[in-house]
Design goal:
single chain, about 325 residues, seven-stranded mixed β-sheet, six-stranded mixed β-sheet, 6 helices, about 30% strand
Length: about 325
C-alpha cells in the first residue's frame, strides 16, 4: 500500500511539473514575442527618426555642414543601403540595437527617396558623427550625408591643404591630419600601403580635385571633394548605387532646365539646350564611377556657358 501511494504521489508531482513547465514555456514565449515585436517597432521608429534628424543637413549651399552627433541609448547598428530602381532609386535605413546583450533582428527598412547616405554597412556604435557636403554637377544636385562611428579615428596623411583645413573644421575628435597613431585608420594621399589610398589630382583654377579611392581590389572614382569623402567613408556597393541614384537626379534636373530654356527662349537664347540634352543623356546611361570623367567634362561645358550668359542664366 505504501509503495503504491508513493508511486501515485510521484506521478502527480511529475504531471504537475510537466504542466507547470509547459505553462512557463508559453508565458516566456509570448512575453519574448511581445518584447521582440515592440523592439522591431522601436527600431523602425528609430529609422524614421534618423531620417528626420538628417533633414537639417540638407539645406543651403555651404561647402560643408558643421557635424552633428547622433547619440543612442544603447549600441546601435545602422544599415544604410540603397536600390537603383524607380525614378530616383531609394535609400533605406535599417536599425538594429543591442537589447539584453543581444542584437535585435528586424527586416523593417525605412525608405527615403531624397536621402543620399554614405557609410559602411553596417556602421556600429552608440554615438555617430554626421556631416554633409553639397554635390553639384554643374547645378546643385543633392546634399551627400556621411555617417561615421565616433569611436573610430581616421588619419588623413599628406592630404592637400584644403582638405586639412576642412578636416580641422569637421573633426569631433575622430578626424586627424597630424599627430596620428597606429590605432587610427590610415587614409593616405601619397602612398599605397594604407587602409585607404587616395589618388588625388588637384583641380585647375581653384576647383576641387578628382581621382580615385582604392579600397582593397576596388577603385572608386570621384569628381570633387563631396564624392571623395563619400568614397572614403562608404561601403563600395553603396557608393556605386548612390552614384547611379544621383545621376537619375541629374537627368531629371537637366531636363527641367531644358524646359526652362524653352520657356524663356522668346526673351533670350541660353545656348544650352543641346548641352543640357547631352548631359541628361550621359546621366541616363551612367554605369559606374568610371563614367564620372566624361560626365564632368559635359557638366563643365554647361556650367561655363551658363555663367558666360549673364542675361539668361538658368540657375
Amino acid at each position: 500500500m505504501k509503495k503504491g501511494g508513493y508511486l501515485e504521489i510521484s506521478f502527480g508531482w511529475l504531471f504537475a511539473l510537466i504542466v507547470g513547465a509547459f505553462i512557463l514555456f508559453l508565458a516566456v514565449y509570448f512575453a519574448t514575442s511581445i518584447i521582440n515585436q515592440g523592439q522591431q517597432e522601436q527600431d523602425a521608429q528609430t529609422g524614421k527618426n534618423i531620417g528626420i534628424l538628417l533633414n537639417p543637413l540638407e539645406i543651403g549651399f555651404q561647402d560643408a555642414i558643421s557635424p552633428s552627433i547622433l547619440d543612442f541609448p544603447s549600441e546601435t547598428r545602422i544599415y544604410a543601403s540603397c536600390t537603383e530602381s524607380g525614378d530616383f532609386g531609394t535609400q533605406y535605413i535599417k536599425i538594429s540595437q543591442k537589447s539584453f546583450g543581444k542584437w535585435t533582428d528586424t527586416n523593417i527598412k525605412v525608405p527615403f527617396q531624397n536621402k543620399y547616405i554614405f557609410s559602411e554597412i553596417p556602421v556600429e556604435e552608440k554615438e555617430f558623427m554626421v556631416f554633409s557636403k553639397p554635390f553639384e554637377m554643374p547645378f546643385k544636385i543633392a546634399d551627400l550625408i556621411y555617417i561615421l562611428p565616433l569611436d573610430k579615428k581616421y588619419c588623413f596623411k599628406d592630404s592637400p591643404e584644403d582638405i586639412e583645413y576642412e578636416i580641422s573644421y569637421l573633426s569631433k575628435g575622430n578626424l586627424f591630419y597630424e599627430n596620428c597613431t597606429e590605432s587610427m585608420i590610415d587614409i593616405c594621399f601619397s602612398s599605397d600601403n594604407c587602409d585607404v589610398n587616395v589618388e588625388y589630382n588637384k583641380g585647375a583654377y581653384g576647383e576641387e580635385g578628382n581621382g580615385y579611392v582604392q579600397k582593397e581590389d576596388s577603385k572608386l572614382y570621384f569628381e570633387g571633394d563631396a564624392l571623395m569623402y563619400a568614397a572614403i567613408f562608404s561601403d563600395v556597393d553603396s557608393y556605386e548605387c548612390n552614384l547611379i541614384r544621383l545621376n537619375k537626379r541629374i537627368e531629371k534636373l537637366a531636363n527641367l532646365y531644358n524646359s526652362k530654356a524653352d520657356f524663356i527662349s522668346g526673351k533670350c537664347d541660353t545656348n544650352l539646350k543641346s548641352d543640357l540634352s547631352l548631359l541628361a543623356s550621359s546621366a541616363r546611361t551612367f554605369r559606374d564611377s568610371s563614367d564620372l570623367t566624361i560626365l564632368k567634362l559635359i557638366s563643365d561645358e554647361v556650367k561655363n556657358k551658363n555663367e558666360d550668359n549673364i542675361k539668361c542664366r538658368l540657375w
